[in-house]
Amino acid sequence: MENKHLAGILLILLGSIFTFKGAIDANQNLINAGIGGVFLGIVVLSFSSVDHVKYDAFKAVVEPYADLVTSFATSLELKEKSVYIPPYGNLPKGGVFVPLHDDFEIDLARFDENTVFITDVGREKEMGLLLIPLGKELMEMYENYSEMDFESAGIGVVDTASSVLRTLGLVKSVEVEENEGALKIRLHGVRQSCSFVCKQIACPICSSVLLSIAKALQELVLVEDLQYKNGIVEISARKIGGIKRWM
User: Fold this and answer.
1) What is the pLDDT of residues 186-204, one digit of tens each?
2) What pLDDT is recorded for position 58?
3) Phi, psi of 37 (to 5 degrees)
4) 6-20, 21-35, 134-148, 188-202: least confidently modelled range
5) Is the pLDDT of residue 40 over 90?
6) What are phi and psi of 58, to 5 degrees?
């Protein structure tokens, strides 16, 4: 077995352990590290195997990641939607909230970096899972690359994200359309490993783009649907108001 294959498998195994350990202990850093480790392991395996491993073998590696995240979200009975929160006082790195109910509410005053599970019997509509987005490091790369102030850049941040992701060989291009608060985001030429469960706990690629848009618009962004077809991930989202509205 090549060193790259061994490293990829170890990352996936360790990531799985960290994810479930973090869920049991309500430790957000462990959950993020675990999911990120699984995804990174898949990327390592895919790059090391692309020339001589058939698609079925690659799929066999990717599906455990999908199953892991899906089972994690299903066990908590979370909805297939997520809200990307731009950085603010309580969450300086931003956040992603996965609600327990379709008709959800958010109280940003209750959030902080040490909170994972939002639970309150008297405030059921606010229940859900709060995570630091897996794509925050990629978003920081976009900011360093462009040297622009993302908090006033608007939808133009997508061009920077597209350039960086294309340079890294992760995505061919990214585009976004905005129409009366509705957002249609398309990632072309995406590796299939990021196409399974991004509605709830998005992979670093999709997460980085969504967090960048939320930060640039200074609004919470609700992801309502995600479809993958012919190498294109299409995300349907909409703006649902700024920080002050949800405090």
Assistant:
1) 999 876 555 456 767 777 7
2) 42
3) -65, -40
4) 6-20
5) no
6) -65, -40
Radius of gyration of the chain (CA): 17
d(CA 187, CA 5): 27
Bridge-based pairing of strands 117-118 and 128-131 is antiparallel
Distance CA 164, CA 145 (A): 8
- Concatenating the DSSP letter of every residue in 133-193 gives -TTHHHHHHHHHHH---GGG-GGGHHHHHHHHHHHTTS-SEEEEEEETTEEEEEEES--GG
Cα separation, 184 vs 176, in Å, equals 5
Distance in angstroms (rounded) separating the CA atoms of residues 198 and 180: 24
Give bridge partners of residue 18 from the DSSP assignment.
Answer: none
Q: What is the dihedral of CA 129, 132, 135, 138, to 10 degrees?
A: 170
Asked if 2 and 13 count as a contact pair (C-beta separation under 8 A), the reply is no
Burial 40-68 (b: 16+ CB within 10 A, else e): bbbbbbbebbeeeeeeeebeebbeebbeb
User: For 181, which DSSP code?
Assistant: T
9 and 41 Cβ atoms separated by less than 8 Å: yes
- For residue 182, the Cα-to-chain-centroid distance in whole angstroms is 19
H helix or E strand, kind and range, residue 97: strand 95-99
Mean pLDDT of 77-102: 87
Bridge partner residues of 178 (DSSP) = 183
Percent of the chain at pLDDT > 90 equals 21
The CA-based diameter of the chain, rounded to the nearest angstrom, is 56
Mapped onto helix, strand or coil, the DSSP state of residue 156 is helix
Give the type of residue at 4: K
β-pair partners for 118: 128
C-alpha–C-alpha distance, residues 247 and 237, integer Å = 21
